[in-house]
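Residues determine shape. We examine one folded chain.
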Amino acid sequence: MRRIEVCCGCMEDVIAARDGGAVRVELCSALGVGGVTPSAGLIVGAVRERGDMKIHVLIRPREGDFVYTSREVAVMEADIEAAKAAGADGVAIGALKADGTVDEEAMRRLLGHCAGMSVTFHRAFDECADPLATLETLIGYGVDRVLTSGCRESAAEGAELIRRLVDAAAGRIIIMPGAGISPANIARIEQMTGAPEFHGTASDKNEPQRASRLFGLTPRHTSAAIVRQLVESH
């Protein structure tokens, strides 16, 4: 059985991920901009409905880049504490400097609030200047996993770098491919990279989307059947 993390933006997604056999969700809002920190109510609801899954919370105060001011880091510190208080099992965090290196001061501040929680360095990794050097920095911090598309638009395109990261990690940290993962390509990406976990939305691209007159389309929902295919496909 493959270990699948599902990116979930609402309670229906969480329940579908659970019923499909996901081991974990990354909970967020605003999937259309890559995700931002979800509401406290959504975290509480996800924890209540998680079953055997783990609930990880994306800690990202806004859309755009991952270069943060001290005040934005303070917001993230408070959000980590709120996620912990709500019963979340882990968080996905990340902070860079303008030159593409890890913002070590910001990471030290954030990690200082993560005791007892699993920590993923999110796709800020895909904007770093030197992926292998950044990996070693994150290993030194004791981060549990890295979510990455191999610094490309999709994990399929970045599979060669992901394989190099898996080899360099040598079991010290989990490399988790994400972006464009589907039942049609997951087995090949697994074979190409040797990665032990995978991340995706598992949404049904054929699902019709409702339209708001002023505010665009509603996002597509996670499909329990697609999660199950990701978990079980060969």
About this structure: The chain has one domain: 3-232. The mean pLDDT is 96. The chain is about 35% helix and 15% strand.
